[in-house]
């Protein structure tokens, strides 16, 4: 079945046109920004390939491509924390997606157990930097919303050093 | 001058620790999600290298690495649309940044002239897909906030086919 994507024939058509003509990178991926549809909070940043994008469009549930597991990833299949797509947008040059979602269950999206993957803050300003020691982060979420060990068991942690 | 970044010595330290130990990709870059600090709107998705991150932390104004121009990019240097960082966060595995900003001037962040780079919506649901024709986008911003020709003149358009 041919994909319902238009050819990228001109910059004007890509930027100002009304046809979906996505550009995937050399690995066949496109970054996706996922925010809470109600609060605007950034929940996660991940990637889609063509299949993940089509599955997301067809089902209304977020599908990604897992780079660590190298497979299609239906978010919530293991944890139950399915992301329901309220709005899906694409950027000017059509190489990045913005997905506004509501999350099932506890509402968490981060494998570490926090609501958002972005639970630590970097200080900003000249006084923040003292080159003799590493910059200190502060936590913005007081507690985890679930226990990753209970949810994922012994599944490998996607974080790589 | 040594960079004030900690070594990435363990997954636990990277995910649960309080030291900034960023991971840049094989091109020396890290994706950055930039949202409006007040509305939560996604303004743009771009990249930082080490220098851009340090400049952003030190000055409180958004600096990126321009992949199309292959240079450090002080956002707003040409257009006046400087982004003032209200909050800077990093994700669980420290390879992605979330920057909450207020924007100078007209408040726009997109080189095409729109407020956000994400001004077009992809329909979601089975009825959205008819494989015989490309998926149609709808515009979510009614009008441009500035005239790119007036602001950027004949500077090359960063969009690539």
Task: Give the strand content of chain A.
Answer: 25-35%
What's the alpha carbon Rg of chain A, rounded to whole Å? Answer: 18 Å
Order of helices and strands of chain A: HEEHEEEEEEH
CATH architecture of the domain at 28-117 in chain A: Roll
Structural account:
- 2 copies of one chain form a homodimer.
- With 161 residues, chain A is of the alpha+beta class.
- Chain A has 3 helices and 8 strands.
- Chain A has a domain at 28-117: Phosphoribosyl-AMP cyclohydrolase (Ubiquitin-like (UB roll)).
- Chain A has helices at 11-16, 50-59, 148-152; strands at 30-36, 42-48, 63-66, 71-74, 83-90, 97-103, 120-122, 138-139.
- In chain A, the strands form 3 sheets. The first copy, chain A, has a 4-stranded mixed beta sheet, with helices on one face. A two-stranded antiparallel sheet of chain A has the order 3-4. Chain A has a two-stranded antiparallel ribbon with strand order 7-8.
- The mean pLDDT of chain A is 93.
- Chains A and B meet through helix 1, strand 1, strand 2, helix 2 and strand 5 of A and helix 1, strand 1, strand 2, helix 2 and strand 5 of B.
- Strand 5 (83-90) of chain A pairs antiparallel with strand 7 (120-122) of chain B, so a sheet runs across the interface.
